[in-house]
Amino acid sequence: MPQRSLRDIAELYGSESSLQGVQDYRSSSGIEKISNMCFKAAGISTLLIDDGFVLEKMLHIEQHRDFVPFVGRILRIEHLAEEILNEGIKHGKSWTLDTFTVAVQADKTDVVKVVGLKSIAAYRSGLEINTNVTSKEAEEGLAKVLLDGNPVRIVNKNLIDYIFVRSLEVALRFDWPMQIHTGFGDKDLDLRQANPLHLRSVLEDDRFLDCRIVLLHASYPFSREASYLASIYHQVYLDFGLAVPKLSVHGMISSVKELLELAPLKKVMFSTDGCAFPETFYLGAKRAREVVFSVLCDACNEGDLSISEALEAVTDIFAENAKMLYKINDAVKSTVPRHVSDNSLSKLDNHVKLEVNSTQQDVLVRIIWVDASGQHRCRVVLQKRFDNFITENGLGLTCAAMALTSAMDCPADGSNLTGTGEIRLIPDLSTRCRIPWAMQEEMVLADMHSKPGQVWEYCPRETLRRVSKVLKEEFNLVMNAGFENEFYLLKSQLRDGHEEWVPFDLSRYCATSAFDAASPIFHEVVNALQFLNIDAEQLHAEAGSGQFEIALRYTACTNAADNLIYAREVIRAVARKHGLLATFVPKYRLDDIGSGSHVHISLSQNGQNVFAASDGASRHGMSRTGEEFMAGVLHHLPSLLAFTAPIPNSYDRIQPNTWSGAYLCWGKENREAPIRTACPPGVPDGIVSNFEIKAFDGCANPHLALAAIIAAGIDGLRRHLSLPDPIGNTPQLF
């Protein structure tokens, strides 16, 4: 492993900068944790997996959904053909070209998961494809391949060309792009035959003019040739994965520059070309950002692009071009908003300038933790000290910090946490990011260690990781969570010479006028969330005067808790910028509706929702696993309130007839019950996909509260608990 890559990985993990140090961290953390760290740090939202790359040990394609929102399959055509031939030979089948063609066409590949095809013809017989290869020539080629023995490896040019042409026809039928390996590769590749200029016969064939062709790996060292093809053929697109990060820094930059010499920016895209190890995805993304930044900075300095054009190019190269090409536009969101306000553009402009002048300006880093009463707290250090010292040694903090009350900054009675003793705040570098409303600053979430390398027993983030690991190891389950953030927007006014905070407006539930008034605020909030790779699924005015809700997309519970913290930081900061105060306090006013942080819970196994029943005849519309887990949560609900509703004000909110969960029961789509099962659109009638806990508010530490929910669910699974009958009406009537 290059020393540069080793240093980057060690920095991400906070481990010793040595191969042994990284290996020790990997062994102690496990594949799930390091995968989540790498994919989150890389900012990857989509994985398109080449199914022809086979390893002895590998996750099923569906399991990758635990790490990213969208996973698609790239079908490698030569690999599929060889699998079909070898399977037939194993069962004594005699192949002819006709039977082989029929078998390929009848293959039960799940086309729903396939988003594109891929050819490695460059490795086998070269890219000078004969698009008019005859069936007789292909038949003879098949016979030669079969004579070469088992397992079959297709290297005959006529058969390769035949498979390639038939695959283009399939790509047209399903509207899939065709990826083509071009340029450098392993030693069994004849580089002379991998020049994309050999593809001209394919590109000029009238039958395939509408088939989108993706030239992979920047076609290195034929990057200029690839750029030329993309400039004159409308169907040609370029992907620079593998060239970045495999080449030297100079090689990566020059290769991307050559691609952009002629090719339209809308036809060039990024991929990590990661495989086998999650670190390769992180390194690919990190190098790509560095290289594209360098290339676009030069373009701006030389006058080829304006700052706004460069920012649009970033969005296109890293997200939009691939989304459009692979028809996954509805499945993923861009990391950078495509249409940004002038103010947001100004901030991003400043971000670019900061990067250019990073050696001349001091960048501040906020190290954030959340205490037991849900208060967000931070300490701030200069970036230089953060990088040189804090990442490895952490920052000192009194043990009492986790026991400070919401009313005053002193330890709660009976907490046993006092001003005696100190812990270390160790930054989790996978959460490090620029602050979108203060681009000269960064923020990072911290774990708590009694000393570096030794996790403190009261660390909330580690508590959630620990119980999540138990759920995974005992039951092979992952708990997903999605939060609904309710909060009030308040404005300041003077009354009798005294300042008081009053509701932003007096509109009511889902009032369009309320959103009209708050629209500029929420545009900035959503843009900032997208910048942080957090998906806001829905926004609306709530029932209280000046009250609003933002619902976040569900994800693995560890990520959901982190996202919730950052989302609240965004909402508070943007409101403050507009002269408003955003408060998540459970009961801001006793004469108005309270604010909750309702959480929707589901269970997944190998990427599939296993909370839902497999058919409508199942009990309560949920699986037995789902029922046992939820029964555990219901059984322990009174105890869970210590974590989900942790302060006295929480119970001013939890009152009858306020949809806050004032009773010990559950119901189907019963919003007065503290736990309700949900049947969202798209789920078959009678089947529930998740359950909602309403007795959860903004003063809860999200990591501790989710950990408590998992622990209760585990108890339900271990004891095989069953649910009582649901309450179908207002609970107080029973």
TrEMBL record:
<dbReference type="Pfam" id="PF04909">
    <property type="entry name" value="Amidohydro_2"/>
</dbReference>
<feature type="domain" description="GS catalytic">
    <location>
        <begin position="460"/>
        <end position="734"/>
    </location>
</feature>
<dbReference type="GO" id="GO:0016787">
    <property type="term" value="F:hydrolase activity"/>
</dbReference>
<comment type="similarity">
    <text>Belongs to the glutamine synthetase family.</text>
</comment>
<dbReference type="InterPro" id="IPR008146">
    <property type="entry name" value="Gln_synth_cat_dom"/>
</dbReference>
<dbReference type="Pfam" id="PF00120">
    <property type="entry name" value="Gln-synt_C"/>
</dbReference>
<protein>
    <recommendedName>
        <fullName>GS catalytic domain-containing protein</fullName>
    </recommendedName>
</protein>
<dbReference type="InterPro" id="IPR036651">
    <property type="entry name" value="Gln_synt_N_sf"/>
</dbReference>
<dbReference type="GO" id="GO:0006542">
    <property type="term" value="P:glutamine biosynthetic process"/>
</dbReference>
<dbReference type="InterPro" id="IPR032466">
    <property type="entry name" value="Metal_Hydrolase"/>
</dbReference>
<dbReference type="InterPro" id="IPR006680">
    <property type="entry name" value="Amidohydro-rel"/>
</dbReference>
<dbReference type="InterPro" id="IPR014746">
    <property type="entry name" value="Gln_synth/guanido_kin_cat_dom"/>
</dbReference>
<dbReference type="GO" id="GO:0004356">
    <property type="term" value="F:glutamine synthetase activity"/>
</dbReference>
